[in-house]
């Protein structure tokens, strides 16, 4: 949890004091759309919201979906998914998400998104830890 808190604090310190409302709304829309694609098991749609760096690591949509199912189960299947604080700077957005998994266990996620050359936002990473646990 300490590493997560330090990372989020660093991103907040580097970001503007108040994130631009449209950047945050756009980032939340991208995250929400990807989560909805996971719920439908729509690998292609979920993969379309991932940044090029993720595509390089996982060159096929089905591989990406398998990684999410196995390593990010609370993101893939959950009881609640609620946006927390967000910060925006230099075309990058950090979005905190409070998640309760299907077993009722609380998690914290930190999504990072980056603006692409075409102006769209893509998810460049997601750090996930159980709430209240140190790392």
Write structural notes for this entry.
With 135 residues, the chain is an alpha+beta fold. The protein has one domain: Nuclear Transport Factor 2, Chain: A, CATH 3.10.450. The protein has six helices and four strands, in the order ααααααββββ. It has a four-stranded antiparallel sheet. A hairpin with a 2-residue loop joins strand 1 and strand 2. It is globular. The model has no long low-confidence stretch (mean pLDDT 88).
How are the SSEs placed, and which strands pair?
Layout: H1 2-14, H2 21-39, H3 43-48, H4 52-57, H5 61-71, H6 73-76, E1 78-89, E2 92-101, E3 106-115, E4 121-130
Antiparallel strand pairs: 1-2, 2-3, 3-4
At the third CATH level, what is the topology name? Answer: Nuclear Transport Factor 2, Chain: A
Number of strands: 4
Helix residue percentage: 40-55%
Question: What is the terminal separation in angstroms?
Answer: 5 Å
Order of helices and strands: HHHHHHEEEE
Q: In the residues, how many domains can be counted?
A: 1
- Number of separate helices: 6
Briefly note the structural class of the backbone: alpha+beta
CATH architecture: Roll
Shape: globular
Q: What's the main sheet like?
A: 4 strands, antiparallel
CATH class: Alpha Beta
Strand arrangement across the biggest beta sheet: 1-2-3-4
State the low-pLDDT regions, or none.
none
Strand content: 25-35%
Query: From the alpha-carbon coordinates, what is the Rg to the nearest angstrom?
Result: 14 Å
If you average the pLDDT, what whole number results?
Answer: 88
